[in-house]
């Protein structure tokens, strides 16, 4: 039987995981062609921070080497940026003129860093933080320059700041919010995190807006100016203030988009031959930027590409962890709480431990942990499974092992029957 043609645009984690899942289900259905805009095979983008911090090498974060593509008969076209999707003729066209026809198309173009629209944002030394090339620029700059400014106090910004500091730079993190990780932590845990990072040598400017980047006189950034008029030195500016889904190709081809390529519960776009997955896709109004939801999407998308047609993606509850060695934090679900919810908190300022659990209608709906995250996975399962916690409510704060011991104690001694 003649194989169908599957073309994938993008060679990142979400797309390649979809291919891995597809090959498990059916390795005879498609001739597969992959276009990758970068010169590298698929690598673990999540581990760029440990590479920047000097804890891992680029080689160690490769997920699928060239042999994997060869072994699975996947035609890999690296350094080939796709510039057009022709949905009428069912083909894609790359910048160098390469054309690939498809029966099914998978768009996995990911996202790009949001570069603040301010004067000086095109100066040398102003970069985003998204790929191996950005990471290498930071490593190289740290060898020759002193002052770095990271714009954005989210996960990526803090990981970049920590890595640059470990490489010897004086680093200031600029954040618009009132506390760090304000989308992942509440104010108390955000302050604990700031204290820990300041003790390591990082500097912070919160509730601060960047107004302009100034030239050092040689075409390179030299300083950062804030809205209040303050100016601080900066030989390197890393923009980590959010991402934007890469949807231009899809939009140009006429696919409906709204903060991402619109997909249904099968990851199918409005064109039944075209699927989208990962950070470029918008599912039920959400474009996910964390890896766990993208892997959930990959399983469902592969199921439909394999023509099994029964899997369904309903969305994901996400959890957060910071990749800074020695700092433990975890949050999941509705960690802020609000109307109709109750919160249980435990605070140990001396031990640097803070725990907050959010309950609604006798169900755990959110958790925020700092300093002791051993039970994060257990709390996350409780949230996902909507477990009624009535019987263990009083012991919930003390974690899985304690509630298990208590349950066994309450059950009383067991008696063997001969």
From TrEMBL:
Coiled coil: none annotated. Residues 319-380 form the NADH-rubredoxin oxidoreductase C-terminal domain. SUPFAM superfamilies: FAD/NAD(P)-binding domain. Its cofactor is FAD. InterPro entries: FAD-bd_OxRdtase (IPR050260), FAD/NAD-bd_sf (IPR036188), FAD/NAD-binding_dom (IPR023753), FAD/NAD-linked_Rdtase_dimer_sf (IPR016156), Rubredoxin_C (IPR041575). The keyword Cell membrane does not apply. Residues 5-283 form the FAD/NAD(P)-binding domain. Belongs to the FAD-dependent oxidoreductase family. This is Nitrite reductase (NADH) large subunit.
């Amino acid at each position: 039987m003649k194989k169908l043609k599957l073309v994938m645009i993008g060679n990142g984690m979400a797309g390649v995981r979809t291919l891995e899942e597809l090959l498990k289900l059916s390795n005879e259905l498609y001739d597969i062609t992959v276009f990758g805009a970068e010169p590298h095979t698929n690598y673990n983008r999540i581990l760029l921070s440990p590479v920047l911090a000097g804890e891992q090498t680029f080689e160690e974060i490769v997920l699928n080497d060239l042999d994997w593509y060869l072994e699975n008969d996947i035609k890999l076209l690296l350094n080939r940026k796709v510039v057009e999707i022709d949905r009428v003729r069912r083909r894609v066209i790359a910048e160098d003129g390469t054309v690939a026809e498809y029966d099914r198309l998978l768009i996995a173009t990911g996202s790009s860093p949001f570069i603040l629209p301010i004067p000086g944002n095109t100066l040398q030394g102003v970069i985003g933080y998204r790929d191996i090339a950005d990471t290498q620029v930071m490593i190289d700059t740290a060898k020759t320059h002193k002052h770095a400014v990271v714009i954005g106090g989210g996960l990526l910004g803090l990981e970049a700041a920590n890595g640059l500091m470990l490489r010897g730079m004086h680093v200031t993190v600029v954040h618009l919010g009132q506390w760090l990780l304000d989308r992942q932590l509440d104010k108390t845990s955000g302050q604990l995190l700031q204290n820990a990072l300041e003790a390591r040598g990082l500097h912070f400017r919160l509730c601060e807006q960047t107004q302009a980047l100034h030239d050092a006189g040689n075409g390179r950034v030299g300083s950062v100016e804030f809205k209040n008029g303050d100016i601080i030195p900066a030989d390197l500016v890393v923009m980590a203030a959010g991402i934007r889904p890469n949807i231009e190709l899809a939009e140009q081809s006429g696919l409906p988009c709204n903060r991402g390529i619109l997909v249904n519960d099968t990851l199918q776009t409005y064109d039944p031959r075209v699927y989208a997955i990962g950070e470029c896709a918008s599912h039920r109004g959400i474009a996910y930027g964390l890896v766990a939801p993208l892997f959930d999407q990959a399983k469902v998308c592969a199921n439909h590409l394999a023509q099994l047609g029964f899997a369904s993606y309903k969305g994901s509850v996400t959890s957060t962890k910071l990749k800074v060695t020695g700092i433990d934090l975890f949050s999941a679900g509705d960690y802020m709480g609000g109307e109709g919810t109750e919160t249980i908190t435990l605070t140990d300022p001396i031990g640097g431990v803070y725990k907050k659990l959010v309950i609604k209608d006798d169900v755990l709906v959110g958790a925020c942990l700092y300093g002791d995250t051993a039970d994060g996975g257990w709390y996350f399962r409780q949230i996902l499974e909507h477990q009624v916690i009535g019987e263990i409510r009083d012991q919930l704060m003390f974690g899985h092992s304690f509630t298990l011991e208590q349950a066994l104690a309450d059950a009383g001694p067991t008696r063997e029957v001969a």
